[in-house]
Structure formats: structure tokens, C-alpha cells
Amino acid sequence: MKRLRYYLGLMDKKTTTYRYSTNVGGRPAQKDLYEGECHVIYAGRSPDNFGVRREPTFWHNGIAYTIERTHKLAIDRPTITIAIPTEMLRIASATPAAADFCLRAVKPYFEAINEGYANRSRPDKENGKFYIYEPGPQVLLRNAAYFAMHPAKDYEELRCNEIFVNPDISPPDDIFCLHIRMEVQLPHKWLDRAITMLCKQMPNAAERFVNEFDVLALEDVLKLEKMQKGIREFLKTSDYCAFIANGSILARERGSDRPDSTAIPFKSPAEHEIEAAGFKGIGIKRGVTVITGGGYSGKSTVLNAISAGIYNHIAGDGRELCITDDSAVTITAEDGRAVSSVNISPFIKWIPGSNPGDFSTTHASGSTSQAANIMEAVSFGSKLLLIDEDRSATNFMIRDAVMKKLIEKEPITPFTDRVRELCSKGTSTILVIGGSGEYLSVADNIFMMDEFIMSEVTETAKALVQAAQMPCDCANWSNIRSITEKFSSYPTGAGRERLSVTDTGFIAIGDERIDIRSLHDIATPAQVNALAFILRYLAKSSAGLSELEALALAMRGLSPKKGSADSETDIAAEVNELIAQINQNSLNVVDSGFFTTMERFMDVPRAFEVLAAINRMRHVEWKNKS
Predict the structure, then answer these.
(1) CA distances (Å), origin 350, targets 196, 305, 343, 598
(2) How many CA atoms lie within 13 A of 594 on its CB side?
(3) What is the maximum span of the chain, computed from C-alpha positions, in angstroms?
(4) In this structure, are 418 and 490 located in the same domain?
(5) Torsion-angle region of 36 (φ positive above 0: left; ψ -120 to 50: alpha; else: beta)
(6) Is there a single domain that holds both residue 99 and residue 207?
């Protein structure tokens, strides 16, 4: 840390930019702590014959601290990544749950520092503050805490900014480390405090975290992760698509994601109780399942818990043993969404002036949007659809026998008429139904919720309804598409990229303003940030540009050309490949500090949400190859 202290010591005591003046080749120049400019003295050479090297990583007692720009307008707010060798922490299993545990464990050490500086009468720019990501109850792959290799220190520090390097000695092997990423607001006009924060309090907090690391608590977390994995493996090899353990707390406190302390613990109906990975609970079989009940009975709460089960949750969340097929997609009506070249003919027979087998619109209705959402989810590999009638288009969901007789020329084939056929194609459905009995006759299993207690009522319900008459025609479920007009992060005619996320649920990229408010399976704002950066990476890669090439074009006031109409892109394959690359190499693959309004903390989304966002782009052109 003495080299970092040296750079800071060159700055003005009242600095707000955290730059210092120096001479380069006899000329005055402005430098900052991000450059980490070192004088390299090599073994066997005269001290006057030195080299120059950029080394923005600082070491203290075997822990590395890398300082980088958050973005060009935040010189006083660096992003710092602390790399702690896993050997120090005695971590043998470097899993997402282990990284998640470490993030939650290290956070209090830096919050204690912040409490010492907190002053409500002054902003953070005057006080100084460490910003560490606040995780929700989900266990996700994050850039705030992850495991990766880190270059080992290959030099010795001398005085000031001098380092000694022996080129005759092979560089040491890289070190496998836990990386903790945070942002730090350096206090304006208070250099002494900045030095204390970076050179004393930060390494002290990191070393206290290491010394007090609770290995036994980590083992409990890893045991839970193993149990969750066991249930997921069970679902993949069984006839079940979802599992809720007995004793789970499904209800949430009003306005929060915390478990409701007054909630009734879940208990499976005896007829459907199974054991998965050593735990007893309800197993929801593949097929068509209806959850019904009166208002405020808990039916939507159960569906929300099933939806949450696509991700693992931490102990104490109440839903940690609610596990769902991770290809599940929540389907709703989405008035006004853009649709491009989607086959919605299984549900829509004809549309004036349009082809339902190759349907496009910039403003879909509730029924056509819900049809498109289902077809897109199925084409991208979803094996489970989650539908709540309260968020659906009524004319898409049902049409009773009387209305079928009254209205002879009806273009919409309701979902109730197709749900069994869809099931025969390998996609199950779980529906929350409270106002219509149409689905009772087509369901494999029917559950009743009454004051948050579930019971099985399949035989009773079916005795009350007549068997539904399914349409005699078989639908064309094929929905094979490719992109012919590749999207870009550059607005038309602009030489600067556009990327931002709004608080109202939109991603702006290039000419696009993508409405993601109906992507209900996005769990955190940090997933939205990652989604935006992933879209930007896909746009850049589709243009065949490297980061430097894109920057060079921008500096010349030029924008890269979009793909020609003759080229076709299998975007699903590209997205799946990129998500796999991120899972292997961390979110640093897509991260960029170019965008001054973008938050840098990211959680990995599923490929389903990335593809869903691309489907909602209004300027992307698709080709239906069905």
C-alpha cells in the first residue's frame, strides 16, 4: 500500500479530482491513481536505465487491491476489486453460493467504516463512503463477488513508485482468488481521510474479514446449496416440474422481499406429498396444473413462490427449498409490445391484413402479445409456463360454450383449447384460476387454496364440469426464426454509443427503447444492468468490432454498420454461448466503463430474459423460417 500512499501524497490536500502533476519527458502532465505508473528497475541494469509500467494493483499482506475507473466522469469514485487468495479463507468449494456468502459476510466490515463517517448534513462526496452491493435473497452469479484467477505479484517494491523486477526469474503462477468488487466515493477536499480510507481502513477491513472468516457457517451454506442442487437434479430426472418443501414460508412482508413472520408454514396435501433429496413437500407433476381459490386465499402467493424457485435462495428466506424447473417462464398479456415474425397461428386463426403464421406489429393487443410470449418461450426451450389469469387477456384465456355458440366467426383459439396439445409437445403449464371453470376439465391436477392452506380437489372439481371439447385441428407450433437486421448500440447517424437503464423499466440501446416491465422473472435491478451490458456486447460482436475498434469509430464520429439483410443470425445460439462464457469467466466479459449513467454492479440473468428483451426491440428484423 505504500506505493498507493505515495501517489496520493503527490496530490493537493483540497483535491476533488484526485490527480497530481508530474513531468513526462520534461513536460508537465496530469496523472491519477488509476494509472499506477511505476519506474521499473531491472536486475542487472543501471538504476538510471529504468522502464515504465502501469501497475494499478496494490498489495498488502498477500491481498491485492486493483483500482480502476468507474467511468470517465467519476474520477473521484473508483471501482476497487479486492482479490483474496482462497487459501487464506480455506475455501475448498468455489461455488456461486460460496461467493454469495462471502459478499454478505464482508459487507458489515465496510458498513462499520461508513457509519464512522456518516453525516446526514453532508453528501457522500464530502464524507467519503464505501459502496458494496446489497444482495437480495436470491443466490446469483455476480460481479460484486466471484472466484477467478488473479495475476501474482512479480516484483518487489522499492521507494516511492519504484519496483524491482528480475526478468531472469519465471513469473509466479496466477492465484485463485475471491474477488470482492466495490465502489469508493473519495471525500472532496479531504485528502487525509482518503488516504486513511484506502491505505489503512480498507486493508484492515479485508484482513479482519479473512481472520474472522466463519468456515463453519460457509459449510452450512454449501450444504444447503448441495440440497438445492439435489432437488433440481431430481426434477430433471422425474415427472415433476416444481417442488415446495413442507414448512416453507411463502408469503412476503408487504412491500418487501422478506418472509412474513406471521405466515402459515406451507404443508403439502397428503395425496401429493413426495420426498426429494431428503425433504418432504409437494411435488407438482408435469402436465396441466390449476391452483384455484377465493380472493386473498394465497393462490398467487404459491405461484410467485414457484416462479421464485427458478433461482436458489439463501437460508432464512423461507423459499430456500422451493425449487422449480429453471426453464420456467412467467407469461402475461403485454399490451403494446413489439412483435416481429412470430408464428401465433396456434391461437390466432386470422388477422385482418396480417399473417398469423408470420405475425409482426409494433403495438400488440393483449391476446396477440400473450400468444407471442408463449410461442417465444416455447421456441427458446421453456418446459414450464406460469400463468395467472389476473395478468392475462380474458379473451385469450377462455371462451365458454355459450359464447362459442353465439360467436361463430371467432379468430382466437383460447389457451384452454390448446393447453393440452402444448403439454403433449413437452411444455407443462401451472395456472392460477379464480374466476373461470373452463380449465378444470383440462387440468391433470387441481389444488384449492383456502386461507393459505392447500388441498387437492381434482375429483370434486371435475365432477362439477363437463369435459371440454378440444379443437379437432392440430396447430403448427413451429417458430424457427433468425435475425436478419442486426441491432446496434449506436443510434442512427451517431458516433457515440447509447446505453442506459431507467427507473421506469426501460433499457435504451442505440435506437431502441426496450420495455422490460413484463419480464417478471427478472429478480434484481442488477440483472437489468447486466442485461443491458449483454445486449451491448451482442450488438458490438454482431458488428464484428472489438472494444478498441468501436472506440476508434466513435472518436471519428462514425457508427458501425448494421448487418445486411442478406445475413442471418441464430441469436438464441449466440446468447446461450455468451451466458455460458459469463458463467465460466465472470461478468467482466461484458463489463464496460464507457457509460456514465450505468450502474456497474451486475447479476447474471438467464438466457430467456436476454432473448425476451431482444424480442421486444422495435427496429430488429426477423425472418420466420418455419
Answers:
(1) 70, 37, 12, 43
(2) 20
(3) 98
(4) no
(5) left
(6) yes
User: Are 193 and 256 within one domain?
Assistant: no
Are the beta carbons of 250 and 264 closer than 8 angstroms? Answer: no
Whole-number Å distance between alpha carbons of 184 and 78: 6
What domain range includes position 584? 481-624
Could you tell me if 542 and 606 lie in one domain?
Answer: yes
In the chain, the amino acid numbered 190 is W
Same domain, 453 and 497: no
The set of residues, in sequence order, having a beta carbon less than 8 Å from that of 69 and lying 6+ positions away, is 34, 75, 78, 79, 593
**Residue 417 corresponds to which cell in the numbers above?**
383449447
Q: Which portions of the chain are predicted below pLDDT 50? A: 554-557, 562-566
- Alpha-carbon distance of 224 to 424, in angstroms, equals 34
Is 514 exposed, middle or buried (CB count within 10 Å of its CB: 0-12, 13-18, 19+)?
buried
pLDDT of residue 607: 97
Cβ distance 123 to 132 under 8 Å?
no
Domain boundary among 430, 463, 496: 463
Has residue 83 been placed in a domain? Answer: yes
Residue whose C-alpha cell is 422478506: 258
Give the phi and the psi of residue 155 in degrees, each rounded to 5.
Answer: -150, 165
For residue 471, being part of any structural domain is answered with no
Q: By three-state DSSP, how is residue 432 classified? A: strand
Cell of 370: 400473450
Question: How many domains does the chain divide into?
Answer: 3
DSSP state of 474: P
pTM to 2 decimal places: 0.92
CATH code at 335?
3.40.50
* CA-based end-to-end distance of the chain: 61
Question: What is the predicted pLDDT for the residue at 621?
Answer: 87
| DSSP codes of every residue in 24-93 | ETTEEEEEETTT-EEEEEETTS-TTS-EEEE--EEEETTEEEEEE-S-TT-TTS-EEEEEEEHHHHT---
> Mean pLDDT in the chain?
91
Give which of 81, 197, 83 is closest to 129, Cα–Cα.
197
Question: Is 546 buried (19+), middle (13-18) or exposed (0-12) by CB count in 10 A?
Answer: exposed
Q: Which of 213, 247, 280 is the last residue of a domain?
A: 213
Q: What is the pLDDT of residue 565?
A: 38
Does residue 6 share a domain with residue 84? yes
Q: Is residue 226 part of a domain?
A: no
Contacts of 363 (CB under 8 A, 6+ apart): 336, 337, 338
Asked if residue 468 is part of any domain, the answer here is no
Q: Return phi, psi of residue 507, to 5°.
A: -110, 125
